[in-house]
Amino acid sequence: MKKIFIAASFVAFSLSSNAQVITPKSSPKAEVEQMVGLTEVEVNYARPAKKGRLVYGDLVPFGKVWRTGANENTTVEFSDDVIIDGQSLPKGKYALYTLPKADAWEVYFYADTSNWGLPAKWDDSKVIVKTKANPMPIGREIENFTIDIEQIDSNNGEIVLKWEKTAIPVKFTVPTHQKAMASIESTLKSEPKASDYYAAGQYLFQATDDTELALEYVNKFIEMQEGKAPFYVLRQKSLIQAKLGDKKGAIETAKLSLKEAETAKNDDYIKMNRDSINQWSK
What we know:
The protein is of the alpha+beta class. The chain has helices spanning 2-18, 176-189, 194-207, 211-224, 231-243, 247-264, 267-281; strands at 29-36, 39-46, 75-78, 82-84, 87-89, 92-99, 105-110, 127-133, 136-150, 156-173. The strands form three sheets. Strands 1-2-3-6-7-8 form a six-stranded antiparallel sheet, with no helix packed on it. The model is unreliable at 9-13 (pLDDT under 50).
C-alpha cells in the first residue's frame, strides 16, 4: 500500500511539474502573407489594444523610436529585392521600427530582427532603408494595432500601419516585370507548351508595348492546338488585333470567340464580345 502511495505521489508531482498556465495574450500575434506581383511579402507582429487610451502622442510618444507593435520585433520579409522611396532593399527579413511625428513618420527597415522590442543599443549601420510616411486619417476607430498590405497591383503595394484613427502607408515596388520577362525568355528557349505561349502573349499585351510579339505568341498557341482555341484565347487575340489597328481582323476573331462562348454558355464573354464587335464596327 505504501509503494502504491509513493508511485501515485510521484505521478502527481510529475504532472504538476510539467503543467503550465495558459492564458490569452494582451497583444496577440498576427501574420499577414501576400503575393504582390511575383513577390511574397510576409509580416509578423503583435497587436496591442487601445483600451480607451490616447495612442499617438501619449501611449506611443511623438519623437521617440517605437517598436511598431508589441513584444518581440515586428518583422517584414520580402522574397525579392524591392524598392522603397527610390532605395533598394535586398530580399530578406527586417525589423520594422518607426519614429512617429505629428506631421510625418520616419520608417526604418532594420537588419537585426532578434530584439525584444527596441535594440539595447541602436546601430545606424543596421538601418538598411529609412523612409518617410505621411499619416492619414481613418474614418473609424481601430481598437487593435493592425498591419495590412494594400493598394496591390502587379508592381506595387503598401504596408499600412493602422491604429486609433490614423493610417501610415509605406509604398514598395516589386520586380515583377524583370522576373516575368526572365521567365518568358528561359521557358520559351526550352520546351514550351502551348499554355506558355499564351501566358507570354497575354503578359506582353497587358504589360508592354510589344503587341506584335504578343500576337505572334497567341497565334503560336492556336497553331499548337491545331487551330482549336477556347473563347478566352480568341478574345485575347481580338483585343491584340484591335490594339494593332486591325479592326476587321479583330471583329472576325471576336465572332469566333462569341460562338465558342455561346457554346460554353459563358455570359460574361458573350457580352464582352458583342460589345467589342459593336464598338469596332463603328
